[in-house]
Amino acid sequence: MSLTIESTVTWFRKFDEKIQANKNTLTDLDQSIGDGDHGINMSRGLTEVIKTLEGKSFDTLGELSKAVAMTMIGKVGGAAGPLYGSAFLKMSIKMGTNIKLSDVELLDVLKEGEQAIIHRGKSSVGEKTMVDVWSPLLAEFAETSAINWEEFKTLAHKNMLATKELHAKKGRAAYLGERSVGHIDPGAMSSYLLFESLAETMIEGGH
Predict the structure, then answer these.
(1) Within 13 Å of residue 68, how many CA atoms lie on the same side as its CB?
(2) Who's near 19: CB < 8 A, 6+ residues apart?
(3) Does the pTM of the predicted model rise above 0.85?
(4) 100 bridge partner residues
(5) What angle do CA 73, 47, 138 make, to 5 degrees?
(6) Distance (Å, rounded) from C-alpha 104 to C-alpha 164?
(7) For 140, which of 8, 149, 153, 160 is 20 to 30 Å away at the CA?
(8) What gap in Å lies between CA 37 and CA 80, rounded to an integer?
(9) CB atoms closer than 10 angstroms to residue 76
(10) Per-residue model confidence as pLDDT tens digits over 61-109
């Protein structure tokens, strides 16, 4: 099974649908431990991403991912825009002129995105950020040649839920100290929705 230009567009359509459906939940989570704007920012940004993807055709995966990155940087406010934008920009370089990616190639691309997030956010595992979904998920599948996408989705969900018990060390949530415990990180939730959308796309047939 491969990720193609067509299935990548499907991936982002699914991501947009999930962000819109969970906009209020993401906002509520962010109001508890952050600036309260994650749901609003992601909703607005994904609306613009879909407009971008539907407004032109793409010859390569790198070109598509760069368009997503630039839209997210320009249209998603708060910390999320630069973080997701940096991830997809780095991923676009790794994708290059490819028109499809195998599971192994896709994992390498996602790893580039993870490293961009770590670098941009200066964050690491255990600090109650989106990294706590990305890093353990990709590490779990690092040695595989064919991803079990149901397991991928399940682990992403587990990683998201695990942020509830973490003590925030980054961003606005860090100011809450111990009071940040007991809340799922909003960036972790949007990251889960991103990976859930990818898994569903691949399960349905990413080729």
Answers:
(1) 30
(2) 26, 39, 42, 43, 46, 190, 193
(3) yes
(4) 4
(5) 60
(6) 30
(7) 8
(8) 10
(9) 24
(10) 999 999 999 999 999 878 889 999 999 999 999 999 999 999 999 999 9
